[in-house]
Design brief:
GO molecular function: DNA binding; protein dimerization activity; zinc ion binding
Keywords: DNA-binding, Metal-binding, Nucleus, Zinc, Zinc-finger
Subcellular location: Nucleus
Protein name: BED-type domain-containing protein
Helix content: 40-55%
Strand order of the largest sheet: 6-5-4-7-8
Organism: Quercus lobata (Valley oak)
Number of helices: 31
């Protein structure tokens, strides 16, 4: 073998790295290290690198950045493997490598032992008594006391040293864990992950000798497949309920930072969402046929007999795809997302657009747009300058949140927050600190002060919140991850009535008089209902026993039971024809419905009537519906379904994670498994009782929005929930502990398509 210096004398390196003799070293690269230019003795090709690349080339090891030798035979490979085992490994065992410890601060010296206790005071009486008992007894007692004292001192010293050793070990482990965060740039939010906490707790409670954490290959292969199998086993009991409880297919569409679209598909029954998969639909998301095929493939996977509805956003392509699905499966209904319809209503009221044609909506609602614009000016003036922000935080107990544009009801959230911090803003602009603040825009500073101290401006904010609150509360009910399909019809009807009352009371208008402003708002609300309701909403409303109870009927004037409402009855009959195409079977079901609605037979007893108004509708059907089995089965399915895409639109939505997978060019099957495991682990963790308890309550809120160390600062929460004060109390528990970080806009990177 020809070495770099021209000598063929074997070296110690050749003994430990025997495959060098199968190549020819041409030239050394660099001053230090083992990299050199070498030529393979088999294929005669020239490469650069270390012994690892030599080994990968000769033994044809993939994934090492060098191609395998084309001339080496299987027999040659076996011979080289034998050489590696027989020659190199014994020498490595004979001369083991020296382990280099982590660079950690030296442990503090153990504390000195405690001083011996002082001798007891001299007592003449006790001494006299001892003396009377004899010198021999005194000598024996003294000897025994002297022998016990060193043992007690030694036990005390061991306990102190052991406690000190435990504290040293804890500090050492804390330092190692912190190095893991700092060196890899892990977000600090990760420290709240329950799986991170339980892993170290398990390791502390179970002594596992010679344990080594799993390497990258185990994490990507064996352990990933095991966890996927474990999750599928956990989800199996949920899937087994689909036949009885029914399931909704939820399809959310998103586009990432590069405007690349994809759809995520989930199956939801009651409040149990299951992530199925995500599909890249670049170049196809405007094709209703492509989307319909994706939906129908998912229906086939879940089981057509189990699916109640398919929920998508309100885009025309989704509506067209939904119609294709209904044509293929008449018993499955396409349902637009109710939350999107409500949010559109809020935008149409609060963001009236000025058009060339005379628009009565703009004329009546532009004052709302002006109030919100003024509030944005005040917020931006304070939050876009660090010194003003500091002054504001001296007076305020709540944060001036930066609200992402992609969130729901952003205008209402902003005004509600202004209402909560009204006194803080007034104290701030009246303070000496504000007066002494040097600003580059004196006019804008004066504008901010005038608005904050303008009582008429605050009265208008109160008015906006008063008539928008029913719409806002409806949005909160619809976005909750609870069955709400059966509540949609009544929510819209009640909301319109409550908005009417709020506006008429403020204007002092009589019920028989017209209000131009209410007419505009009413038209926007009715348009929102027309775009979002389906016959399925009416059927679910008809099967809710609460709406037949005297308690509900007496809550408001002019209320009638669902079977007496012409529109509801018409839409209900449409559904019955699709669910039961056979005329004889449909007649039986309609007869069962008549017994339920009119309280005939067993439905007329006291318990059945009493429970209609107070019992959960699904539980009521389980308890009292056995006499009408077909209608009972249908009611149990419909009363457990959602009405929105809220489970697809988490703050840890999958779009950012999928974008990372695409950026890293991972294997498609591996990426699909990883996404399945990751998303369902988070969904399952929310079912744990510990999720809403302790310091790590709601640990995944805001977790995906942070890169590197951004998680050290405050979290942006207005875009995560409509419960701003309640949620902020949890997330901002440490917000006053000295952090000086700009708010982070969670969810601002993705948008719906």
């Amino acid at each position: 073998m020809t070495c770099v210096a021209g000598s063929s004398t074997p070296t110690a390196e050749d003994d430990i790295s025997p495959l060098w003799k199968y190549v020819t070293k041409i030239d050394k690269i660099g001053v230090g290290g083992g990299n050199c230019k070498f030529q393979c003795n088999y294929c005669q090709l020239i490469f650069k690198g270390s012994y690892t690349r030599v080994k990968s080339h000769l033994l044809k090891i993939p994934g090492q950045g060098i191609r395998g030798c084309s001339k080496v035979t299987p027999q040659d490979i076996r011979e080289m493997q034998r050489v590696v085992v027989d020659q190199a490994e014994p020498k490595v065992r004979k001369n083991p490598l020296e382990l280099v410890p982590l660079l950690l601060p030296p442990p503090p010296p153990p504390p000195p032992p405690p001083p011996p206790p002082p001798p007891p005071p001299f007592n003449a009486t006790s001494w006299s008594s001892s003396a009377c008992s004899g010198i021999g007894a005194s000598a024996i007692g003294s000897s025994r006391q002297e022998s016990l004292e060193p043992k007690k001192r030694k036990a005390a010293e061991c306990a102190i040293v052991g406690k000190s050793s435990t504290l040293d070990a804890k500090e050492h482990l804390d330092a190692m864990i912190s190095k893991m965060f700092y060196s890899e740039g892990l977000p600090f939010q990760f420290a709240q992950n329950p799986y991170y906490i339980s892993a170290y707790s398990f390791a502390a409670e179970n002594l596992i000798s010679n344990y080594c954490p799993p390497d990258i290959n185990m994490l990507k292969t064996t352990l990933l497949q095991k966890e996927k199998a474990n999750i599928e086993r956990l989800l199996e009991r949920i899937k087994n309920t689909w036949k009885e409880k029914g399931v909704s297919i939820i399809i959310g569409g998103w586009a990432d930072e590069q405007e690349q679209p994809f759809v995520s598909l989930m199956a939801v029954t009651e409040d149990w969402p299951i992530f199925l998969r995500a599909i890249n639909c670049e170049g196809k998301y405007e094709d209703e046929n492509f989307l319909a095929v994706v939906i129908m493939e998912t229906i086939a996977e879940v089981g057509p007999q189990n699916v109640v509805q398919v929920i998508t956003n309100n885009a025309p392509v989704c509506r067209a795809a939904g119609m294709l699905v209904e044509a293929q499966y008449p018993h499955i209904f396409w349902t637009p997302c109710v939350v999107e319809s409500i949010n559109l209503v809020i935008k149409n009221i609060c963001e009236a657009k000025d058009t060339e044609a005379k628009d009565v909506t703009y004329d009546e609602c532009r004052w709302i747009t002006t109030i919100i614009a003024d509030a944005m000016v005040v917020k931006n003036f304070i939050m876009h300058h660090s010194m003003r922000t500091v002054i504001f935080e001296l007076f305020a107990n709540l944060k001036m949140l930066a609200i992402a544009d992609t969130r729901l009801a952003t205008m209402i959230v902003l005004l509600k927050r202004f209402k909560l911090i009204k006194s803080d803003l007034e104290n701030m602009v009246n303070s000496d600190r504000w007066a002494c603040l040097e600003v580059d825009n004196v006019q804008k500073a004066q504008f901010v002060k005038e608005k904050v101290l303008d009582h008429l401006w605050w009265e208008k904010i109160d008015y906006i919140l008063s008539f928008m609150d029913p719409i806002y509360q409806m949005l909160r009910v619809a976005i909750a991850e609870k069955p709400s399909l059966h509540c949609v019809y009544d929510m819209w009807d009640s909301t319109i009535e409550r908005v009417n009352v709020a506006i008429y009371q403020h204007e002092g208008t009589q019920e028989d008089e017209d209000s131009t402003f209410y007419s505009v708002v009413h038209k926007i609300l009715v348009d929102g209902w027309d775009k979002s309701h389906t016959p399925l909403h009416c059927l679910a409303h008809s099967l809710n026993p609460r709406y037949y109870s005297r308690m509900w009927l007496d809550e408001a004037p002019n209320r009638v039971a669902p079977h007496r409402d012409a529109e509801i009855s018409r839409e209900r009959n449409k559904c019955m024809k699709r669910y039961f195409p056979d005329i004889e079977e449909r007649t039986k079901v309609n007869t069962e419905f008549a017994k339920f609605a009119a309280k005939y037979d067993k439905f007329g007893d006291h318990d059945s009537s009493h429970d209609r108004g107070i019992m959960d509708p699904k539980i009521w059907w389980i308890v009292h519906g056995s006499s009408v089995p077909k209608l009972q089965s249908l009611a149990i399915k419909l009363l457990g379904q959602p009405c929105s895409l809220s489970c697809c639109e988490r703050n840890w939505s999958t779009y950012s994670f999928i974008n990372s997978i695409k950026r890293d060019n991972l294997n498609p099957k591996f990426a699909e498994d990883l996404l399945f495991v990751r998303t369902n682990l988070r969904l399952l963790s929310r079912r744990s009782p510990q999720y809403m308890q302790g310091e790590n309550k709601m640990w995944d809120v805001g977790g995906d929005a942070f890169e590197s160390f951004e998680g050290a600062g405050m979290l942006e929460t207005a875009c995560l929930s409509l419960d701003e004060p309640e949620l902020e109390a949890e997330v901002f528990a440490d917000a006053r502990n000295g952090y000086d970080v700009e708010p982070i806009k969670v969810g601002s990177n993705g948008r719906k398509f």
